[in-house]
Write a structure and sequence with these properties.
Structural class of chain A: alpha/beta
Number of strands of chain A: 5
Oligomer: homooctamer
Largest sheet of chain A: 5 strands, parallel
Order of helices and strands of chain A: EHEHEHEHEHH
Largest interface: A-E, 39 and 39 residues
Strand order of the largest sheet of chain A: 2-1-3-4-5
Strand content of chain A: 5-15%
Number of helices of chain A: 6
Chain lengths: 174, 174, 174, 174, 174, 174, 174, 174
């Protein structure tokens, strides 16, 4: 079992197909970095609907706080989960059809009034941000996480500056 | 209860919102024309998911042969039903968001391998065709319906010819 | 001749170009799995229109029950066939132009009222689902097929669960 | 019968639905202006396919030189006609679905190698240009038409200049 | 001052232009329904950037828990706020340009790794869902809100069922 | 002649059709506000190409500093002018076809390497910004304009704050 | 000089960039097959506008009958030529930007009323069809070409049938 | 430090990520060709917002005349800079997400009235044109640059003609 993963996890990460794992592991990675527990679940809205719904229904009472769901094509996974829980659900559209993720994006985002899905960018950036958003939500009641987020934000800025220096040096050498 | 509608109906017509009725009544109208029984159901994939699933699960044993489902935006209705039955499911994307039905179209159409939705054109033409397709499916084992379909196809052609005549006459008079 | 293919076949699979075969063989594969007979036909709506129409016209009296048609670009193949038969026609948009299948999708889907095409997802998932939908239609009057579909649906769910286990194990080992 | 319309006409103008007439009458109007004979035909690729094909097949031997075809949605009309004749076929996509003509545009334009359709802009500008293109084609062997086209091109430019003057005057007066 | 609005509010609702108010008032309405305090702020990412940033920077220490931001066109508002706070930021794309909200949707959603925006559907449904998502986040530490959300979810389902009854009755009367 | 318009004007505003005037008058209005001289020209890239080119060619030696060009559909106007001058050319896509300005946007923006067009947003916001950008360019050598721009930027921010106050007051009164 | 190319050619083939040659050589190839003379011209609407216009202006009096123009991105080439001649102009959108040819397609197609461009499909299929359309136009006054076109159409159909046979055989062997 | 780069540079080139450098170096290259000084800055609108804003705010008083900014996805960089300066800002959309640059394009282009961004084509052609546009702006008060631009424009045309010759020769040899 990888670092942050455990059964009564704070964040449940769903993916609709094993081919989505290369993308959704970005969510897991950032939760590991922040020391937040999570559980990876492979369950499809269309191919294993009963188990998906059963997991969604018991997520709240099993201690989950936030759900992340990544899927491609007619990406109903996040929406189906959101229909069966009152926990915040974060959706990650995966680019896995010839339409380059536009189908997954619109299927995840355009939810009807009453059942929100917090949709992220298509692909890896979105999967990573799903992890960050989950941490931002958990940090509302966790001052240690809040402090980590503050440091993370500073590190983001510092990393850009360091990369500029590296770029300038490599330019200067030419 | 309108003409063709009854409880142990051959075709179950779902719509996700009462605002879809103006579109989906086209499916009902064509089934009425062909004398095929149907039942209209208003049930949302996201707002009333349990009832939607329960209806989908019992459709086969309650005598339904074909399911039609119309919805807009992140239109998961047809896909969610298809996940819970082995009956043929026909999806009608409804244009009900600023994105002009492109969201409903892709959410209905781009189903993963294993769980098909027979997707129709966006809007009224699609809703009417959902009815025709249901009749084409039922006609495989109903020679009376098959004959009606043959006559319908001839009438389609004749109507175009009559409209040409009317157009030519109105042109000639100018 | 491959396993399921025979002359008085229940399903006729059309493709508009030999380059569509890599996609459309998915329809054939699933029909083979279910033991449903089919016939593969290569015929273009635009380059061999007379033969396409002639095949469409005689499909019903030659014993076909369902037609599947896959084509790319201005994909008129399914629509042209649907214009000449009252059998259910399933369309598969193929991604074969720089526009990534959006052209094939809209050309197949947006049929006028009176002449439906049951449109599937773009590409391989769609071709496989065309086969499943054909089986769902045939199963309405074939209890053996209906039972197979029920088992298939359970296997779909079980496969997802097995893949989750495999994923968890490979994660745990890292 | 309107001015330029006659039976052995040089240009045959097809439309797929009577609702396309408001658009396609622009093609007729410009042919009237240039004194080129035409015949309006209402015939659908999908609802009256046999008549459409029969007209296409006999167009050449009945004296037609150029065919114009306007249709909306899965606009196969021009392509189906082009499949059955070697005359130049000009396609006009009509905006008649929620997708704003993008479906008609791609269905008309994306023809496979071997069967061209000369596609015009969506809507009225395209219908008018279909008429002009027909005249440009006919003018290759008609010096009177060629001269008229030359004068038309000068008038186009002059009209823009006159409108500038009118605009400046209306501005100056404010 | 409307019902739920107060200065040390739990939810800050930003809009980039006064014309967005007709949309964003949906977020306020749902917060009022749940008795959650909010503050409406009109501030543009591009026209009043300093104030927008200053508000974002002080949101956390002023007691805000969740930020909602709605904007149209090149909708940078949610992203700019997210760049200056570690609070969860929910973005609502507003359809206010000829491109029907596609510009606002992509500008809000496609955030780079490290700076998430929880994006909702385009328009009113999205604005209402932004309110619900804020409540779902706040409910993680508020059992009263959690209970209300549970009742709300049941009411959503019940409302659909009541509307079905009304629809059936109105049908039956015809 | 309106306020800022004169013959040896600093900014030449082209439009391709008189129907573009309702949009392009926004460019003129902002130049009037800043006291920058301009000349309105109605000339089409396609219908009056010679005059368009002739105006472009003499713009530099006639004292023009910046050119603004607005057009719809296959909007070549800005690009054609840019091909014939080395002055900065600002393009405004106008929404005047069923495709909602996407055609004008791509036709104006996607210029090949060597011949830039500074493209603005579709419609009125873009036309107004074309005026502002022209002023920003002229201000590089005009300290009075630079000062005005500074004040304009402050006024933009102040106006947003005033509108917030008005909104809060109208809310409070309800 | 390749087979069909000569100075007083019937068809002038323009391309906007040498990178378009891989596509536009398809037009030349089909003209070679039909024995129609052509001249290849590399000239850009934006980078060498004067020569492009000069060639367009003298095309008619130098004996050209039909012009083909292929370009990518903001593909103004066909439209600029059409603005300066009354010959039929055929446009081929080339997929040469990240937007996959959608920019070239709309820039070529959406011409204003009065100046048509006969637009073909994006890429190689379109370039080949541009050659066929040119031949269809020339065949109106050339019975030898007309006969060749008739044979070509039959060969198109026969080739599809032969490919079906080959496909069936390769299937049978498996 | 590369040729044209220096601290009190006339043109400041921003990029939002080091992966944009392969594109944005085209802007630097053309400025080098024209002998215009520039400074490359790597700074993100979202990850290092404070530094981005601080640079934008001091650009004018540090001697910058024109700013170029390239970014991908929800490309806010140019817009954020434009919000904090009155200098002309040129935006280059970079294709760096599955959506092929459409997201970057709309995020850069669709700026609200009052805050223009001069948007270029997606990718390398756009980055090169950003450099040319900067030079066109600077040339308004630099006769030496103006003369260079005149020669550049002639060279563009000559290069096309030379490439035609090379193409014809390579054709002739075959």
């Amino acid at each position: 079992m990888p670092k942050g993963e455990k059964k009564s996890a704070a964040v449940w990460i769903f993916m609709g197909s094993e081919s989505d794992h290369a993308i959704m592991s970005e969510s897991a990675a950032v939760l590991d970095e922040f020391g937040v527990s999570y559980d990876l679940k492979l369950s499809s809205a269309h191919r294993s609907p009963k188990r998906t719904i059963s997991l969604a229904e018991k997520s709240l009472r099993n201690g989950a706080k936030v759900i992340i769901a990544g899927a491609g094509a007619a990406a109903h996974l996040a929406g189906v989960i959101a229909a069966h829980t009152t926990l915040p659900v974060i959706g990650v559209p995966v680019d896995s059809s010839p339409l380059k993720g536009l189908d997954a994006l619109l299927s995840t985002l355009q939810m009807p009034a009453g059942v929100p899905v917090a949709t992220m960018a298509v692909g890896k950036a979105g999967a990573r941000n799903a992890g960050i958003l989950a941490i931002q939500i958990l940090a509302l009641n966790d001052s240690r996480l809040r402090a980590k987020l503050g440091r993370y934000k500073k590190r983001l800025a510092r990393t850009v500056e360091e990369k500029e220096k590296a770029l300038k040096q490599s330019q200067g050498k030419r």
